[in-house]
Amino acid sequence: MAQGAGIDWDSLPHGGDLYGELHLAETTRPPRTAPAMSMFPGLAACGVASAAAAWLSDHYHFPIILLGLLVGLSLNFIAHDPRTHRGLDFASRTCLRLGIVALGLQVTLAQIGALGVWPFVALLAVMACAFVAAMAGGRMAGQSSYASILAGGATAICGASAALALYGVIGKNRLSQAQFALTLVGISLASALAMSIYPTLAAELHLNDREAGFLIGASIHDVAQAIGGGYAFSDAAGSYATIVKLARVALLAPLVAVASVALGSGEGEGSPAPSVWRRLALPWFITAFLGVLALNSVITLPAPVSQAALAGSKALLLLAVTATAIRSRMDLLMQMGWRATIPVLTATIASFVAALGFAVAFL
């Protein structure tokens, strides 16, 4: 008789194939509630990449934002791990907004007033030329209007900081992160080259300190490169370039406000249309930027506090840029080709030509 014969397996409480029961239990068990993913993996990866970019910038004197972009793009395989998504999203959104708010501590209304009426009007004209040129270049190159708005606004105001703020209004549903990353790379490269070339061109054209300061401050995109280029010409030109550039930074809030009203919500086609009051409302970080700017205009902060705020703003913006680069898809970036850089190129050329013309004519 075979072993186990005569046993009624069906009457036993645990009869059956043990492995099969366990396997069935595993496959039919209701899924457990997944714990909230930690932000640590993404933030740690972004922090290490940003620290590497800062070290390279300090030792090789290369623009830190551009290095953050390049290091982040080289590490974009990290974003394949879903555990990094929450931290990277936090860095690219929250760190960006906090960095924009901290940037308000570098500008005062008195600095804008010190520019004077006609130089300020000329500055507005230069910014308008850059924006129109970006729109025209984007149309000729077959790029979307959102890519042109991003390039034009970033070129007209303050480079990568403005691009980050505008992208928050445009939204990733309208413009891919790859296009955004490519725009940031173009703006950072243009700023780095301009910082080296524009002071030499100003000297060859025999511009005085005021004219050179206006040219450099009105046409170089990123703040650090504009100020550095001005002081590369002379101390007087550097001081005037700083005033001109900070006046452009102060116009970040109006530009983002206009873009927010004109473009509306960037949540996608399936989302309900926002109300009129919601469209008129400024993004909270732009409202905070204006509040900090106003506070800085009426209260003189100690120099260590101002310097710490500037360092904190740079660090937060670097984290945001690096996180955005890590989340960008290299395959989409490679597919876009050279035409995607045309809006930045046309805006850069137009801003230089217009700034040079106004510097010679009005100053």
What does this molecule look like?
- By secondary structure, the chain is mostly helical.
- The chain has one domain (38-362).
- 73% of the residues lie in helices and 0% in strands.
- The chain is built from 18 helices and no strands.
- The chain has helices at residues 18-28, 40-60, 64-74, 85-103, 109-113, 117-140, 145-156, 160-170, 177-204, 209-219, 223-233, 235-250, 252-263, 276-280, 284-298, 303-327, 330-336, 342-362.
- The chain is globular and about 55 Å long.
- The termini are far apart.
What topology emerges from the helices and strands here?
Elements: H1 18-28, H2 40-60, H3 64-74, H4 85-103, H5 109-113, H6 117-140, H7 145-156, H8 160-170, H9 177-204, H10 209-219, H11 223-233, H12 235-250, H13 252-263, H14 276-280, H15 284-298, H16 303-327, H17 330-336, H18 342-362
Helix pairs in contact: 2-3, 2-4, 2-16, 3-9, 3-16, 4-8, 4-15, 4-16, 6-7, 6-18, 7-8, 7-9, 7-18, 8-13, 9-10, 9-11, 9-16, 9-17, 10-11, 10-12, 10-18, 11-12, 13-15
The first-to-last residue Cα distance is 112 Å
Strand content: under 5%
Order of helices and strands: HHHHHHHHHHHHHHHHHH
Q: What is the helical fraction, as a range of percent?
A: over 70%
* Uncertain residue segments: 14-28, 30-36, 268-277
| Extended strand count | 0
Largest sheet: none
- What is the global morphology? globular
- SS-based class: mainly alpha
Quote the average pLDDT: 81
Q: Return the domain count.
A: 1
* Tally of alpha and pi helices: 18
**Rg, alpha carbons:** 26 Å
